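Reply to dn_fold:

You asked what the input looked like. This is it:
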Amino acid sequence: MPFELLTKINSPAANSAILRLLTIHETEDQALAWVQNAGLDISDFDSDGKFFYLSNLLILGRWEELVAEVANITKDDQTRSPVLLHPLAMASVIQAVPVEARSTAISQVPFEATQFRLSDSPHAMEGRRQAVEYFDALSDFGIAAGVMGRSNPASDYALWLRLRDPLSRQNALEVLRESMRDDSQSLRRVNLALQFDIKLDIGAIERRIDRTLALGSDGTGDAAFARFALALAQDTPQAVADYIAKHRLQLYKHLNKVGVLVVEIEMLARAKLIDRAEQRLSEEASSGLGEQEQEHLRRVIAEARGADPSAERKSIYEISGSLADLVNLVSVLARADAWDDILPYAEKLFAITQSLEDACRFAKCLSELERYSDLMRFLTENAAFVEQSPFLRTMLAWSLYREGRFGEAVILLRAISSGRDNADDRILEVNLCIASGKWEDLIEFTNGEWRNRDRRTANELLHAGRLAHLSGGPHSRELITCAAKKAPDDPTFWPKLIFKQ
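and this is what came back:
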């Protein structure tokens, strides 16, 4: 039916037909411009039209509009057009993803599956779990309709999100292990399995990839993806670079060439193969490698030559301003224990990602710098993150102790230490007993150390023996004797014993 006739009908079905035609034959942007110019909204389309409307918003990265519009999709819409489950799922996912990384998140399960930043805020976790439900339903629809191209990506997204969720991780790991025994799924999930520490038969996977190459000149996308995952699983940086060089044509055919190239050169630099790294950079620069990527790689090579890693990573981040480079900078500074330097970057990173990992890193930074009032404020303002993390809960217990809120600290410490045996917990317990004058509790602590003497070091037993002596506990001599027996050949122990009697 001609476009002009459709515009005169003015029905949800006709409007949807026009939107579909414009999307297919023009552009997504032009299709949405027509919707706006015609004074229409999502309610003016049938369920198929709503799919095109939401998909166009998704493709164009109009995130806020997408999230607002999915609220208008009914269960009846989903029943009539199950393909709507895809934009619904993605709209739920992106609310947990930093804006800069959303395009990556909607294109495929991120390659850095364990490290890709996802928000762990309560709202984001709710969205992530809702997305799993949508992806599961979409996968079921794809199987029923015989469209595995819909089912496989949806099931992979659902599995990835479950693996990243503490409440579903163990069951998801079992699903992943089982799928690695299924030839129809194993290749495309090699990367997930490697990143989540599933033991694999690498030789068998290599043979399967080789078979796909024998059946076609360049293999398949799944095979190339698995090959790249195997590359990064090699034992040394040089082995990674050599593996990529060996399979370069296959990888370039199916994967992002720049991404593969950057990894290859970075690995050469880390292996101190500077000449090879510079040669590869020179070859690709003349073939059109972008200036930003070239500058990044030049600084990576300079770092390998001996330049200050922190300074180089700062320069890279200042040039790009990218989230990935901010993550790398924070990691480098943390490994160097450069807490003064890391503080503003760690704070910025958490503000962007709202991830539990970055919350813990920022809290550790504040603690290392002894900015205890700022730490307490951060923990109080982010109570939802504290509830998810034993590390942050421990920091909160210490903060309560420092503020003299001994009763609250004791209650929290008991909850934290239940089911675990942690040296820091024991130190805090002793501090709380002494600070609050609860000598009976201190005696009970030393009795507990005596009961657990086989799991304690000589120094810990010596300390417990001294505490038992000071508090009137019954096992002072036995604890000190046991400590001495555990360190018969340690020349540093005996002076401690003499001076601490």
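The chain is about 75% helix and 0% strand.
Hope that clears it up.
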